[in-house]
Amino acid sequence: MNIAANPVVEADQTVYLKDYQKPSFTVESIDLDISVYDDHTRVTSTLKMQRQTDGELILLGRDLELKSISLNGKKLTESEYGLDEEQLTIAQAPDQVTITTEVIIHPETNTMLEGLYKAGDLYVTQNEPEGFRKITFYPDRPDVLSVFTTRVEADKKYPVLLANGNLLETGEAENNRHYAIWQDPTKKPSYLFACVVGDLAVLKDRYTTSEGRDVALEIYAIEKDIPKCHIAMQALKHSMQWDEEHYGRAYDLDNYMIVAVSQFNMGAMENKGLNIFNTSCVLADEEYTTDAAIMRVQSVIAHEYFHNWTGNRITCRDWFQLCLKEGLTVFRDQSFSEDLQSSAVQRIDDVAVLKAHQFPEDSGPLSHPPRPDHFVEINNFYTATVYEKGAEINRMMSTLLGKEKFRKGTDEYFRRHDGQAVTVEDWVAALTAGSGVDLSAFLKWYNQPGTPKLEAKGEYDASTQSYRLSFKQSLKAHSKYPDLKAVPIPVALALFNAKTGEQYTLQSDALFENNVKDGVYLFDQDEASITFTGVTEKPVVSLLRNFSAPVNLEFNYSDEELAFLLRYETSGFNQWQATQTLLERILLDGHDANVYIDAVKQTLPDVIVKDPLLASRLFDVPTEGYLGSRVDENYQPAVIHEDRESLLDTLARGLGDFCKETYLSLDPDTQKDFSQAMGVRALKNIMLGFIARQGDTSVFDLAYSQYQTTENMSERLGALRVLVWNDAPQAQEVLQDFYNRFKDEALSLDQWFMVQAAHPNATETTIKHLISHTDYDLGTPNRIRAVSGGLNANPVNTWSFGVDHFLDLAKFLDEKNPIVGSRLLQVLTRWYTLAEPQRSEVKQKLEALKAQVKSKNVSETLNSMLSV
Ligand code: ARG
Ligand code: ZN
């Protein structure tokens, strides 16, 4: 290997946004030749480059064995270039150069699942953000766009050879080998390059775009999984049409390929015309995957498809801008999904994810702005903050603008920046120019960390029939981002007549958008107030409707007012929001549970008929994990567990016969659509849980027969959970049966692992048993996540024997797969809130890990976690 000594001692590895510089060379075109052999892969690439600024010519490369390099046809000797572990540099390159390099790489031993790697019998790539430099020497940064021509060659035992773009040529090569040449006509950054070599079957379909382009659609998977690809295919066609209708964006190539792979670090990847998907995000089938997974498949398919415009045609200037493409694309896929199921429930689920993951992240040591201004390892910034808070910023702007103006803004964005690599500022400026509304203040949301606290107070004056709402906002101080400013907060609100339950028509000059009843007040000061007139009775105010801003609202509601909102609010989301506030008060502040029980009992029968999925969400008792994240000190997981258990018991008792009656009266097979059937299944499973709590042992027969008679995974799993988690006499039998049925179905088997790991009384032995099972595999992130995620469903377990489990994983993966290792370690982020002596014990273990890890991924996370 040819690696020159690296003179720079591992000093500070932090990269800063302020240091951004344009690349000194552009790449007009790249010709890649990738030849796969069993024990190595040879990559030859020829780059045509053109100088655009002064400076060295820099090609990034990592773990590459350089065989030869030539410049403008002349072989270079070792003294004519510099080479270290990160890059190859040529000090005085001419303005126009053609550089050819030949390297050897080892996908067959690549366990990091980054760059080109072998997953089982399949070779695939994952290049975002910095994987391409592990394939060949290249200016691997998103602001270098080029035309890629790729020749892929392999043994014929791998009949499928794919890369981005159009297939130009196929042919035979020596020694029973063959090749294919692909060319992608659109200029793209290297992180969007993909290639696939393997033996896969394919599901084909077609779509004609609004511009009349006939597109071949192909989903590749192993043969037996092809029947599980139909839902994804439908979702793909639906997404293509949805983007035409809602954003005026049509697809731009003649083919769109998706490849399913069982070993993948993340959900999926939007490579141009050749998406690569974790099987968990593309395979969907009622028999093998749950309703939730089916919904997720559709939203991830949409997400990756939508990236074609927001991410690929318009990409990021640098990785600090990641939320430019991710925040916008998540917002787009959430909007798409709101059309697929009960839109209230889609919003409920998105807000639940935000509050369960992003809010805790943003209140602890890993807190960062949606657009950070420094990082050590960019892979650590594919976070809930970048994705989910990023989406909320776009939602806020779209709420303020309304549909029409928002569309004018996005049209302007596509008009200005198609084919470019841009910044968050460019996006906000285009929205502003297109809509005619100045949105520049929203940049503060991108640049600041922390969840704002929004304190509101209401005062009714009967003599003037007016109601005054005053607001105050604040952000927790942050050592790395000291200069925090007030942000623009759109507060969607409504006033209800407390006597009649009717909604007032809002009268106030200060409303931003006032479409008769649904008002939005733009609060953008440290403090301000708004007065409503014509309020004839003391009102009940509903604030932050549809969760119009990602803030922590503090308003002194009485429990009765919250019960009132559950009853009279006009949208399902707002009803749910009232239940969540009520439940949080019961669980964290010791309020009486009866107000909630009575209100739910009153409201539910109606809701069950109209929207069973929404009905199921009204029973969302905040998880122990979420409740724990609301506690900033002296956190005792066991206390929260006890309190939550006792609330559930009270609820079960309070609901009485309602549970069994509801269970027996509902039938998913007679519902009008998938969303309703999914709701009925969810409700039935919840009721099973309550019946078990009531101590009614007939529940085991109900669950057992539900398990045996269904062909639907959500029903089967719901029944399995109740049996296993309650240690029913049938538990071992059904577990064994589940295993026998699904042992060759990886995604279903993940559920089998998860159910057992999530047993409330799981012990260290349970987990040891699972991770020494023959089907457990540390090379398959989905399997690791099944057990770890299951374990973490019970924070009492996470914070006892779970601590060592996660530390061991982080240590092991630090070397094998640091991206996943860093993620799993983050489960322990809130260690500092624990009550003593646990706090010090965990801290000591984290400190001890420092010396044992090497990767930038795990080290950066560990250092940040300990920096409280
Ligand atoms: N861009 C992908 C998406 O659609 C995610 C890629 C994540 N990759 C990573 N190395 N963290 O969201
Ligand atoms: Zn994305």
UniProtKB/TrEMBL annotation:
Highest rank taxon of the organism: Bacteria
Domain Peptidase M1 alanyl aminopeptidase Ig-like fold: 450-555
GO biological process: proteolysis
Domain Peptidase M1 membrane alanine aminopeptidase residue range list: 232-444
Alphabetized InterPro entries for the sequence: Aminopeptidase_N-like_N (IPR045357), Aminopeptidase_N-like_N_sf (IPR042097), PepN_Ig-like_sf (IPR038438), Peptidase_M1 (IPR001930), Peptidase_M1_dom (IPR014782), Peptidase_M1_pepN (IPR012779), Peptidase_M1_pepN_C (IPR024601), Peptidase_M1_pepN_C_sf (IPR037144)
Keywords: Aminopeptidase, Hydrolase, Metal-binding, Metalloprotease, Protease, Zinc
Protein name from the UniProt record: Aminopeptidase N
